[in-house]
UniProtKB/TrEMBL annotation, chain A:
Residues 72-425 form the Solute-binding protein family domain. This is ABC transporter substrate-binding protein. Belongs to the bacterial solute-binding protein 5 family. It comes from Thalassospira alkalitolerans. The keyword Signal applies. GO terms for cellular component: ATP-binding cassette (ABC) transporter complex; outer membrane-bounded periplasmic space. The keyword Transport applies. It is found in: Periplasm. GO terms for biological process: peptide transport. It comes from the Bacteria. Keywords: Signal, Transport.
UniProtKB/TrEMBL annotation, chain B:
This is ABC transporter permease. GO terms for biological process: transmembrane transport. Belongs to the binding-protein-dependent transport system permease family. The chain crosses the membrane at residues 94-118, 130-156, 168-187, 226-255, 275-298. It comes from the Bacteria. It is a multi-pass membrane protein. InterPro entries: BPD_transp_1_N, MetI-like, MetI-like_sf. PANTHER family: DIPEPTIDE TRANSPORT SYSTEM PERMEASE PROTEIN DPPB-RELATED. It holds the Pfam family BPD_transp_1. Residues 94-291 form the ABC transmembrane type-1 domain. One of its GO terms (cellular component) is plasma membrane. It is found in: Cell membrane.
Length: 505, 305
């Protein structure tokens, strides 16, 4: 249905009738649209991109990663030291207060860490927090975090999804109360929440002055969920919205041509890739257990053309199974150029001179998948294409395995290869390769505290994945942002719009 | 009339029970709810933990019994997605849908019935052709297209109505027209056909012969008989509007119950879907029951049957 609703013809109609946009600069309010209904504003109890966006504005982490330079600086912590591989000491910032007036100190950090680390409390994305064992208060402004095992990406996680909550308030209201009346130390405080529908935020006047996030500049944020893109466009034209994103490429081009809005495009950390049943879970005689067949498929698909014609924008062809900005994402790996002739030769060499037939699964971007099956058809690989709901495909992959599928992964915007390659090549239920060598290398890379050693072992693992063509990384995704020309804003590659960095021109 | 009412009521209750069992059972066939709740990054052990936490590992009869017992008391459990009581969520969303449904069906009836009557009084006349044209348009135009056309005209060109939201009555004008217009053609054609039928009937001729005024003949004698199938149809349409206004709710960002149901299915939010299916079917059942009673009142012969 959504495909129909997003019909370009309808959009053209909206476009044809459009007048000049009236931004809400005068009332110092930025009107924003989300497409998806956010389940719960409590950042530990949602797994949506919208949740991450709100999290960065409402709460602070102990550490901050500058999205442009990639450097880590203190936020609620001023500095930190590793006592040993599994013990991290942090000195906390003094003089910070939560939106409800509660002063920030070590008790808040201890309560937050101990709550989220406890599996029983059911934090939605366990991986974000389950590396922590507990926290203890050393002084009023000094804490110690104990890790379960050595986890060098800890700093990246503390700079990302781990927000610090007010201990007294959270003990009283819990995740449901926090979702309805969120309280943090962040640059924006929440005025009202209508679950899933409408979120109103305002500038937090007492935001701590030394924050690496800088001070918020825009007074009010009014965020509404509008599921249909055409309606978002209509609101943009009629002045009801000032900022929308995830605009489809063709529509972004038309909006850009109008000249009334700023259209920006930036890559996101999400990558698309093909999985192959190398482990032979769908049958021992499965052709995808053969390296030559996997390599043939890799040569058969013209990723460059798919990027240029369908994804557009700042999307790039990706050769290594990780996002290039991630720590440890080795770029010097075997690449598979578009070469249908070579693909045919490889197939013949593998014992399939007359081609073969494969079940091909996907859950999103049907048009990309169809382009790929066109390329496969051209070299003699006939595919039975099946588009499933995400949860259904995931379940099938876990339980029975699928021969070949088109998948995507966003790494939760975490800039460390442990969030990408280690997710899928360590014998988990979605590891379709089950390669002991790769697992061993990744174990070293994930737990070593020596950055050089980590890089070395991620590199080994990624090179082997590419050499063996275990999976075929395809491309990175991109996002289009369309906003009023009164707004000063530059998107970042992690696809997290930071409202506190936006200002009026 | 009492026996008839009780019979209908008993039937309605049986249907309710059947629907509740079906909705409960069907959802377990739609995939593993534990995997859906655990999310994109969960490991197999995470999923097992979720399964145990939500009690999916218990026999389904026990789960159904517990659910039904709580549902009767208005407790549909907690939404897996929103982590809020389903009853709170549904009642919030349902109010938007109810307003939309009532306005939509009123709009449809208020335009369709007079048009249908007028068309029947003068068959093949200019007014009949106009009525036919309007009804064909209504049937042929997809709701999302019509909705966006209205948005383009009234929100962008003239800027008199807001394109989305549910803050004031202005927000409901365009959705009402879109939703009502979709239901209108069937009601109008049925009114016209019914009226044409009865206008040729003996009792109408008799009424005219005994000197009853044209207005009295039309509305007391003819329409009362012609309207019976329309009442049944309107009841079904009303049920459809309450559960099926997904497209309209999505276009105008109204966040009603229909859109909630649609999204909840995709999110595998079982408690919400179960509650909504039960409530939507209750609407159908109640409206059908009421239309049966109304028809029995309009036509005494039905009470016997």
């Amino acid at each position: 249905m959504k495909q129909i609703l997003k019909g370009a013809g309808v959009f053209a109609l909206v476009l044809a009738a459009s007048g000049a946009a009236q931004a809400d600069k005068a009332s110092d309010t930025l009107n924003i649209a989300f497409t998806k209904e956010l389940e719960n504003v409590d950042s530990f109890y949602n797994s949506a991109r919208e949740g991450v966006i709100l999290q960065r504005s409402i709460w602070d982490g102990l550490i901050y990663r500058d999205p442009y330079s990639g450097e880590y600086t203190g936020n609620l912590a001023t500095d930190w030291t590793w006592v040993d591989d599994v013990t991290l000491d942090l000195n906390l910032r003094e003089g910070v207060t939560f939106h409800n007036g509660e002063p920030f100190d070590a008790d808040d950090v201890v309560a937050t860490v101990n709550w989220v680390a406890d599996e029983k409390n059911g934090v939605k994305t366990q991986r974000n927090v389950n590396w922590m064992k507990s926290a203890e208060k050393l002084e009023q402004f000094k804490v110690r975090i104990h890790l379960k095992d050595p986890f060098p990406a800890a700093i990246e996680y503390l700079a990302g999804p781990v927000s610090i909550y007010p201990n007294e308030y959270y003990a009283k209201v819990g995740p449901t109360g926090m979702g309805l009346n969120p309280v943090g130390t962040g640059p924006y405080k929440v005025v009202s929440v209508e679950p899933g529908k409408h979120f109103v935020l305002e500038k937090y006047e007492n935001y701590h002055k030394d924050s690496p996030k800088g001070q918020p500049k825009i007074g009010h944020l009014d965020i509404r969920t509008i599921p249909d893109f055409n309606t978002q466009a209509a609101e943009l034209f009629s002045g009801g919205l000032d900022w929308i994103w995830q605009v489809p490429p063709d529509q972004a081009e038309s909006l850009g041509a109008m000249g009334s809005f700023t259209v920006a495009n930036e890559s996101t950390m999400r990558i698309g890739y093909l999985t192959f049943d190398g482990a032979g879970r769908t049958g021992a005689g499965n052709p995808l257990t053969k390296k030559l067949v996997r390599q043939a498929i890799s040569h058969a698909i013209d990723r460059k053309t798919i990027v240029a014609a369908l994804l557009k924008g700042n999307s790039r062809v990706v050769n290594s199974f990780c996002f290039p900005s991630q720590f440890g994402c080795e770029q010097d790996v075997t690449t598979y150029d578009y070469d249908p002739q070579k693909a045919k030769e490889l197939l013949a060499e593998a014992g399939y001179p007359d081609g073969l037939e494969i079940d091909f699964y996907a859950y999103r971007n049907r048009e990309y998948a169809e382009a790929m099956l066109g390329y496969l058809e051209a070299v003699g690989i006939k595919t039975n294409f099946k588009l499933l709901q995400y949860s259904a495909l995931r379940e099938l992959t876990m339980k029975e395995g699928v021969p070949m599928s088109f998948q995507t992964w966003g790494s939760y915007s975490i800039n460390d290869a442990s969030a990408s390659v280690s997710q899928y090549f360590k014998f988990g239920s979605l590891d379709t390769t089950q390669d002991q060598q790769i697992k061993d290398w990744l174990d070293v890379a994930d737990s070593s505290v020596d950055p050089e050693k980590r890089k070395e072992y991620y590199s080994k693992a990624l090179k082997r994945i590419a050499d063996e063509a275990f999976w075929l990384p395809l491309f990175s995704y991109n996002a289009n942002y369309v906003f009023t020309q009164d707004l000063d804003y530059a998107p970042t590659t992690d696809a997290i719009p930071r409202f506190f960095q936006m200002s009026w021109k | 009339m009492l026996v008839y009412t009780l019979k209908r009521l008993g039937l309605a209750l049986l249907v309710t029970l059947a629907v509740s069992m079906l909705s409960f059972a069907l959802l377990y066939l739609s995939g593993d709810p534990a995997a859906a709740i655990a999310g994109e990054t969960a490991s197999a052990s995470d999923i097992e933990a979720v399964r145990h936490y939500y009690g999916f590992d218990r026999p389904w009869v026990v789960q159904y019994g517990e659910w039904m017992f709580n549902a009767i008391r208005g407790d549909f459990g907690e939404s897996y997605y929103f982590k809020l009581p389903v009853s709170q969520l549904v009642s919030e969303r349902l109010s938007v849908t109810m307003i939309l449904g009532v306005c939509g069906i009123s709009f449809a009836l208020l335009t369709a019935v007079p048009l249908g009557v007028a068309a029947a009084v003068r068959p093949n006349s200019f007014i009949d052709r106009i009525a036919l044209f309007i009804s064909v348009m209504g049937q042929a135009m997809p709701s999302f297209w019509f909705g966006l056309v209205l948005i383009v005209i009234f929100s962008i060109k003239f800027r008199i109505l807001p394109p989305s939201g549910s803050d004031g009555w202005q927000n409901f004008v365009m959705p009402t027209v879109v939703l009502g217009y979709y239901a209108m053609p069937a009601i109008m054609r049925l009114t016209r056909a019914g009226m044409l039928d009865v206008l040729g009937a003996d009792y109408v001729r008799t009424a005219r012969a005994k000197g009853a005024g044209e207005f009295r003949v039309m509305f007391k004698h003819a329409l009362r008989n012609a309207i019976i199938p329309v009442v049944s149809l309107a009841a079904v349409q009303m049920g459809f509007m309450l559960g099926g206004s997904i497209v309209v709710e999505s276009i105008f960002a109204l966040h009603g119950a229909g859109y909630l149901a649609w999204e909840s299915i995709g999110r595998n939010d079982l408690p919400t879907v179960q509650a909504l299916i039960l409530i939507f079917s209750l609407f159908y059942i109640v409206f059908t029951f009421l239309s049966d009673l109304l028809n029995a009142w309009l036509d005494p012969r039905m009470r016997v049957g």
